Fold this sequence. Notes:
Layout: E1 3-8, H1 12-22, E2 28-34, H2 41-55, E3 61-63, H3 77-80, H4 104-114, E4 119-123, H5 128-136, E5 144-150, H6 165-169, H7 171-180, E6 184-187, H8 189-192, E7 196-197, H9 199-206, H10 211-224, E8 235-236, H11 239-247, E9 252-261, E10 272-275, E11 286-292, H12 294-309
Parallel strand pairs: 1-2, 1-4, 2-3, 4-5, 5-6, 6-11
Antiparallel strand pairs: 7-8, 9-10, 9-11
Helix pairs in contact: 1-11, 1-12, 4-5, 5-7, 9-10, 10-12, 11-12
The protein binds beta-D-ribofuranose and calcium ion.
Amino acid sequence: PTSAWIDTDMGFDDLAAVLTVTQTPPWRVDGMSLVAGNAPLEVVIDNALRSAACFGWDFPIHAGSDGPLVGELVTAQNILGADAMASAGRSLPRTRAPLASSDAVAALIDHLSAADQPVTLLALGPLTNIARVLQRRPELATRIGQLMWMGGSAGSGNHTAAAEFNAAVDPESINALLDAGVALHMVGLDACRQVRVHAADAEALRAVGTDKAELLADLLLGYVRIASPAGTLPMSLYDPTAAAALVAPHGMSFRPAHLVAECKGEHTRGMTVVEWRVPRRAAANAQVASVADETQLRRVVLDALARAAR
Ligand code: BDR
Ligand code: CA
């Protein structure tokens, strides 16, 4: 496949992931569904429509779920800022592209039903929209050829000690997808932590010399500074690593595993429990990212950002 539908909670690393797809020929984006996660849905919509205007996206963008299947939305605004862009004072131009609809679940159902080939999905946030699609139309699981998801972890968490953020926001959705039999490829935190960017990468991007290069360099620098305020430490690429694994599949190795999300634990809600000992202890129900080729994957992302800046 060389096209994907993207489901995203549009913070800065989501934007970098979308640009990784749009700027890696021959890949293109069929459509986009938005979900609350990094920030409340209104902020996610604003980021997506402003990004679309700025970077000239021509695919339809649909607003979706404003909170998880169960419980209240928690956002990452404490880390990414109110605009979820890690922006350190820098923001996207105010012009917005139009919103195609406010029913992303219906739009994704239509897209899956109409496609003549199995559809590739790239999911960069909580899995709420996709779980709602399959709750309404379970038979559409077989129309999803591959669901590449940044989320979960085969190691420790970030939102809590046990849980990665996208998994922590909506763990019930993960199990709903697995129960529906979706071909899930999980690119977890432990895989993403192998692919890092540095302040120097932001400066190399700035050297492209356009207004968009300034914008992306400032946003990337704000993102790197999440790891250390002075920008001296590298920062892991989360969503862009999943996007790069999609468009450059030799850069990431996946292993079959049995996956389940913990939905009850007092200290472990949102933990993705990975049983690697398949089929001995359990039947595999997912492919889980294990070893990343850092050199290749960060190049794919940084080259795409440089092209987006031109
Ligand atoms: C994930 O959480 C979000 O804040 C990022 O956009 C990424 O999808 C990392 O845990
Ligand atoms: Ca995200």
